[in-house]
Amino acid sequence: MPNSNTLYANVFVDALAAAGLKRVCLLPGSRHTPLILAFARHRDAIDITSHLDERSAAFFALGLATASNEPAALVCTSGSAAANFFPAIIEARQSRTPLLILSADRPPELRHSGANQTIDQVKLYGDAVAWFVDAPLPEADPPPLALRNLRTLAARAMAKTAGGVVHINLPFRKPFEPGDDDAEVMNIDRGGATRFLREKQSDAAALDDLMRGQARAERGIIYFGHGSCRTAAEAGALMRWAARASRLSGYPILAEYSSNMRNTGLAAGARYVPLGAYETYLGSDVCEFKSIEALIRFGAPPLSKAMGDLVAQADLKHHIYCNRDGAWADDSHGITDLVHWDPLSAAPMPYADDPPATETAFRDRIHRAEQIAWKLIDKAIGTRDYFDGAAVYDVVDLMPSDGLIFAGNSLPVRQLDQFGKPSDRPILAFANRGASGIDGNISSALGIGAACRERPLAAIVGDITFYHDMNGLLAIRRCGVPVTIVLLNNAGGGIFHRLPISRFEPAFSDYYVTAHGLDFSHAARLYGLDYQRADDRPAFRAAFSAAVAGRGSTLIEVRTDALNDLRRREQIMATIRAEVEQLDASE
After folding, report:
1. What are 460's strand-pairing partners?
2. What is the DSSP code (8-state) at residue 533?
3. CA distance 3 to 23
4. Residue 95 DSSP SS3
5. What burial class does residue 586 get, using C-beta atoms within 10 Å of its C-beta: 0-12 exposed, 13-18 middle, 19+ buried?
6. pTM of the entire structure?
7. CA-CA distance, 392 to 460, in Å (whole number)?
8. In the predicted model, what is the mean pLDDT of residues 346-356?
């Protein structure tokens, strides 16, 4: 008689493949052997990567799912292995990224028995998952209904990932390896058990009505936050809508870099191009941002503190929030209209015959401020000491048109937002902004690169973020993911210089700056990366250009001074605001 574990695992994994699973990350262990062997049968159809560390593997899978916009699966043995997935699951939950967790478990008689490597895995992740199922124990001679249940479970699990993370816990008894008479269950069943037909639910018509109604008569802005678009197709569709909406309303379009709306193929200086330097002139009185009455917002809440403060403090008659899954994302609790809207459903045609806005002075003035800002940033980047914002500016400037940028949390993602100049090159940017942690950032970046192997990948991370995930570097060689890592090393804790705690010494230096004195060239050698030290602009631009063009894996370390970096940023912002204030507010 065939091994019941082999039969169950094959039926379940065959159904996952039939339901469209394309990517899986496998970890070593024993109890999940039936699942590993079942996935190995699908190696031609499923991209299988092997990892040694559960925490890094989970963030790698997160990157796969983020870049592909499709679920990625994680498979582990029983015990604490599954617990190490939790940080990435939290990020996936917060960022609404589809993950499928498959954990092997002990059979019922070994649970709560003191058996080695046994923990309570039932609902291990609590409310962090959208769906949990404790799968049935394999039977020696299962009835057809039991096997149909397995196939349906796989199909349902894949469908449920549209709502976030799904955890299927699968118990197995020994023996885990197939027996000599298992050949009869080795034929792959490619038939699907269940189809889930979905209409794209969209309330776009409600937004069109708002735009044609009272909101159009008000001064407002269109704002794209992190994750507004995940693919070039989504960005293209949403940009066509935004250009029409700006024409109709007179609203300027502002976009965070990781919204993926700054690089939409429109010519720089065009009337409806998304703007990116707003952080530097938001506080200018002449721009009159505080007088806005309407806000149409997409994606996550603003990364920029200045923009977040504006949203919280402005007297908004209309705060229209558009979200792909209808989830609430407003820490100021001022949303007046929540619109469930798939970016691909965005259509410019509803506004095709509407007359353009008659009042565009506000939008035109913001566009002039944008031009001033980038003129002065361009000039500042090329002079004086090199600083972290300049390195990020150069990454964006030198990145090929089909490139991918991953920005680590804390300072790098904020530097990318402030110094990532809009262009007509279709670069996609990513960051773990669901929970905004620094854990697993390198692994997430490598997962993104693995999902898009034909595209060059650059990861910009700080030194503490790099330190947190050095073991994730093993995936570069093990999974064959080329990457250029830009390590901004300011000796730790640079972001805390922006906070009031920086005035409190000696506690600030002792407990916040987190100086480490590490030589990261050793990590490059350990994991087989080329290493370049580049502390000035010519050296960095040469090293980065060569690394990206070579499509190998390189660690480029830029050593900066946190206080100098902060002063340079503040000086640039002060210069821009002074010149913007010279604009004639009456124009």
Report:
1. 407, 486
2. E
3. 26
4. helix
5. exposed
6. 0.90
7. 8
8. 72
